[in-house]
Each structure stands twice: as structure tokens, then as C-alpha cells.
Design a protein that fits this description.
Structural class: alpha+beta
Distance between the termini: 37 Å
CATH architecture of the largest domain: 2-Layer Sandwich
Shape: globular
CATH superfamily of the largest domain: ATP-grasp fold, B domain
Strand content: 25-35%
Order of helices and strands: EHEEHEHHHEHEEHEEEEEHEEHHEEE
Bound molecules: adenosine-5'-diphosphate, magnesium ion
Length: 357
């Protein structure tokens, strides 16, 4: 596919805040954006040229969407793989491909794939029954995190476990579905590598940020991460391996645990722009959303030089209802336009530039 000229249509599967920010970046580069999402008036559709409302198995609407788009991308990793395969069978170009999607949708497949391509993770065991769980907990040192293989996010679908806990109740609590038990990783900090790969295989990684979670939800990302150049180079090289091995086109994010001795263990990856990269539009010459658009449109990647030290803070639930000026004169506020400020729901974020890089 040759580079798409301005005026072309970029389709996005999914209607959340990531689609809204990708869409805004695409509009700024002169593209029209079509959102495909099942919901009525989702955040992304309210800044787009058109909203195709349909479920992910609604073939008629998917067909019309495919016909209207020059390239299609996704902002949500739980889009069914069959949806992407159907769009491709109609002749649509979908970037990134179903490979990135399929691998990251299932925590077990994901961790096995990471290990196969030489990216180390913490220890883990597949769990399909309570008896698997007993054996796995024993094998992993009497402590671990039980997670559903599919569809978890923001710490949902997870329970922390010790041997004496009621394992049957824990398995029920996650819905008694296929799961994975992960050894508890005693990390010193968490970082992420947000990296783009273009259609020719060129790659550009943002400076990894240090990420703080609370209750499984990202609260802040800070760049620089404070890590040594050696560790940063190692992290970036893991991100590059992942982007290359999945044949990814677009942005992806690799979440890493950093141990006291500098060892890096992969936690998970997202085949899309990422919350821990929300500081990049304010902190770097090119932000992650524009970078993603560039990659999927077949444009060359932009420079990722970080020009500011930054701190990104998520606004959860009612935190986003505060008047924007209350965050400080130097705070750049982004709100997602979600109607309902439920506790813990990601409603927006604030970026503060704390110095020159
Ligand atoms: N094996 C683990 N050891 C220690 N902490 C973990 C482990 N797995 C997850 N966590 C903590 O929980 C957070 C959310 O877990 P994660 O697997 O990334 O799920 P989600 O898909 O909800 O982001 C992580 O960022 C980390 O802080
Ligand atoms: Mg995560």
C-alpha cells in the first residue's frame, strides 16, 4: 500500500478514549475518521466524521465500513480476531494485523509467545480447574496472582493468592474460566516501552516511562524513568524484538517489571497505543497517536525525541469533574467525553511538564 494522501479515510475498530485520541491525531493530519463500535455515541465517534454502529459480528455493517475505509486499525485488544479476518477477506487493509491481536488477547498464548521469541517473563502455569490451581500455587512458591486468560483490564479478572486462601472461592471469583497463575514478581518498579513500527519495518521507541499502579489501575507515568542507559537500551531492544516478531504495523506497548538487580521481566503487551504513553504528545516531538496514524497510513514515522520531563496522571471517576484550572496553570488536561463518572473509570488525564529534557 502506498502512503495514503490526506483526505483518505482511516477506520478505527472500537470507540473508547484511545480511538478518540487516535482519531483527533488523524484529523489533524488531514484524514477522515470512521469509527466502528457497537455502542450508541461512544467517545471516539463524537470527534469522528462518521460512526458505523454495529456489533463485531454484524457482517452487513462491517462490509459497508470496510468499503468506506482506505485502511482500518483498532484501539481495543478484545476485538474478535474473526472480525479482523472477515474485513481482510473483503480486501480491507487492517493494521496492525490479526497476529498482534490474537497473541495479546490470551495471557497464556501471550506469555508463551514472549518466551519463544526470547523475552523473559515471570513464572506462570495454566489453570483450568481448582486442582490445577493447587498444583500451580505449590509450584510457584505458595504465592501468586490468578488471572483470567482473556478479557481482563485495569486489574479486573485477577485475585492475589496465598496457599491458605480458599482456592475454590478464588477460582469462582474470576468466573471459573480458563486462567493463568503467575508467580508474584517482587518488582522494584514498572516501566513500559511504547514503540512504533512502520510498514517498511523501521522502528522508533519512546523513552520508557515509569508507571505506578494502584489496585491494578495505572495512576501515573513519569518520564524519564530514572533507569540507567543500559537498562533502557535492553528494554527498548525487547520492544523491538516484539514489534518485529509480530510483524506489527503501528504502535504497541510492552509492560515490564524491573527487579532490584536490573533484570527485566515482561508482564504483558498491548497491540495498540497505551495509557502509559499518554504523556508523549506533550513530551515528545511526535506523540503516540500521531505515530500510530503515520504507521498505519504508510507514512514515515515522526521523530520521538523527548523534549520535556513529564508526569502524566490519570483522572479516575469523579476526579475528572474538577474544574480544569484546578489542576494548575501548567497542566495539560485531556478529557475523554465519557458521560458516566463511575468510580475507577478512566475519564481523562493530566500531563505536567516538569522540566526540559
Ligand atoms: N505477576 C505479578 N507480580 C506482581 N505484580 C503484578 C503481577 N501481575 C500484575 N501485577 C500488578 O498488577 C497490575 C495489573 O496487572 P496486568 O497483568 O498488567 O493486568 P491488566 O490487563 O489489568 O493491566 C500490573 O501493572 C502490576 O502492578
Ligand atoms: Mg497491564
Amino acid at each position: 500500500m502506498s502512503p495514503l494522501p490526506a483526505g483518505s479515510v482511516i477506520g478505527i475498530l472500537g470507540g473508547g478514549q484511545l480511538g478518540r485520541m487516535i482519531g483527533s491525531a488523524a484529523a489533524r493530519l488531514g484524514f477522515d475518521v470512521h469509527i466502528y463500535a457497537p455502542d450508541d455515541s461512544p467517545p471516539a465517534a463524537r470527534v469522528a466524521a462518521l460512526h458505523w454502529q454495529g456489533t463485531y459480528d454484524d457482517r452487513d455493517t462491517l462490509r459497508q465500513f470496510a468499503e468506506s475505509c482506505d485502511v482500518i486499525t483498532y484501539e481495543f485488544e478484545n476485538i474478535p480476531v474473526e472480525t479482523v479476518e472477515f474485513l481482510v477477506s473483503l480486501g480491507a487493509t487492517v493494521r496492525p494485523s490479526a497476529k498482534s491481536l490474537e497473541t495479546s488477547q490470551d495471557r497464556l498464548t501471550e506469555k508463551r509467545f514472549l518466551n519463544e521469541i526470547g523475552i523473559e517473563t515471570g513464572a506462570y502455569e495454566a489453570v483450568d480447574t481448582v486442582s490445577d490451581l493447587e498444583t500451580a500455587l505449590e509450584a510457584l512458591g505458595a504465592r501468586g496472582i490468578l488471572k483470567t486468560r482473556r478479557e481482563g483490564y485495569d486489574g479486573k479478572g485477577q485475585v492475589r493468592l496465598k496457599t491458605r486462601d480458599d482456592l475454590a472461592a478464588a477460582f469462582d471469583a474470576i468466573g471459573a474460566v480458563p486462567a493463568i497463575l503467575e508467580a508474584f514478581v517482587p518488582f522494584e518498579r514498572e516501566i513500559s516501552v511504547v514503540i512504533a513500527r512502520d510498514a517498511d519495518g523501521n522502528m522508533a521507541a519512546f523513552d520508557p516511562s515509569m508507571n505506578d499502579h494502584s489496585g491494578g489501575i495505572l495512576r501515573t507515568s513519569i518520564a524519564p524513568s530514572g533507569l540507567s542507559d543500559t537498562i533502557i537500551a535492553k528494554a527498548v531492544s525487547m520492544g523491538e524484538t516484539l514489534a518485529r516478531e509480530t510483524g506489527h504495523i503501528g504502535v504497541l506497548a510492552l509492560e515490564l517489571f524491573v527487579l532490584e538487580d536490573g533484570t527485566l521481566l515482561a508482564n504483558e503487551f498491548a497491540p495498540r497505543v497505551h495509557n502509559s504513553g499518554h504523556w508523549t504528545p506533550e513530551g515528545c516531538l511526535t506523540g503516540q497517536f500521531e505515530q500510530h496514524v503515520r504507521a498505519v497510513a504508510g507514512w514515515p514515522l515522526g521523530p520521538v525525541t523527548r523534549v520535556f520531563d513529564v508526569e502524566m496522571q490519570n483522572l479516575l471517576g469523579e476526579e475528572a469533574l474538577a474544574p480544569p484550572e484546578s489542576f494548575g496553570a501548567d497542566a495539560v488536561v485531556t478529557l475523554y467525553g465519557k458521560r458516566d463518572a463511575k468510580p475507577g473509570r478512566k475519564m481523562g488525564h493530566v500531563v505536567r511538564r516538569t522540566g526540559r529534557a
